[in-house]
Cobalt transporter
Amino acid sequence: MANPQTTGLQVRSLDLSAARAALWLAGTAFLALLALYFVGIDQGAVSLFGSDSHVHEFVHDARHLLGFPCH
Ligand SMILES: [Zn+2]
């Protein structure tokens, strides 16, 4: 079993201050909402790329897996 003291591996602690945690939470929520938009909502008139259906086709299986209406 590897011991960090004998292998020279250094493990840094995470900075979990409230401001940093809020920043991580905001970033994670933004990326999650962006993914949710592209998987579930980006279609037809509300599509960011107009009538281009590349995004829709790329996430098509995920859309059906998560139960979003499609066809
Ligand atoms: Zn479909």
Q: What stands out?
A: Residues 60, 64, 70-71 surround zinc ion (CB under 6 Å). The mean pLDDT is 84. The chain is about 55% helix and 0% strand.
